[in-house]
Amino acid sequence: MMVYCQRCGSGMPGVAHFCSNCGAAMPPTPFYPVHPLVRPHVGRVIGGVCMALARAHGWDVVVIRIIAVLGLIFSSGLFGIAYLIAWVAIPEEPLPLPGAYPPSV
């Protein structure tokens, strides 16, 4: 992603903190998820909440599932209620049209 200096207008990579031309401080770039937060059809175990969080933020799904199980054990069931709410609140990934190419990763 290319960003442009607000002072001189020169282009630089989005990870730059200072302009390489004039030295002005660059504003922080906003955080964009890797994928939209949707429950996928492929790779989910129970409701797809852990897989949705892992795909949306680029995390390892195994780590998210371990955290979910530990949260369920040590939260006296509150984490289970939160999981059910997320299961209802996070939309399901739309099915691709027949003959359509799979989305690019």
What does this structure look like?
The protein is mostly helical and 105 residues long. The protein is built from three helices and two strands. A hairpin with a 6-residue loop joins strand 1 and strand 2. The protein folds into two domains: 32 residues; 62 residues, no CATH class. It has a two-stranded antiparallel ribbon. The longest helix is centred in the middle third of the chain and has 14 residues.
Pick out its properties:
single chain, 105 residues, mainly alpha, two-stranded antiparallel sheet, 33% helix
Give the gist of this structure:
This protein has 105 residues and is mainly alpha-helical. It is built from three helices and two strands, in the order ββααα. A hairpin with a 6-residue loop joins β1 and β2 (11-13).
Strand order of the largest sheet: 1-2
List the total number of helices: 3
- Beta-sheet strand percentage? 5-15%
Oligomer: single chain
The N- and C-terminal alpha carbons lie at a distance of: 17 Å
> Given the helix and strand composition, which structural class is it?
mainly alpha
Major beta sheet, specifics? 2 strands, antiparallel
Helix content: 25-40%
Mean pLDDT: 81
Number of domains: 2
DSSP strand count: 2
* Helix-strand pattern: EEHHH
Question: What is the topological layout?
Answer:
Blueprint: E1 2-4, E2 11-13, H1 49-57, H2 61-74, H3 78-89
Antiparallel strand pairs: 1-2
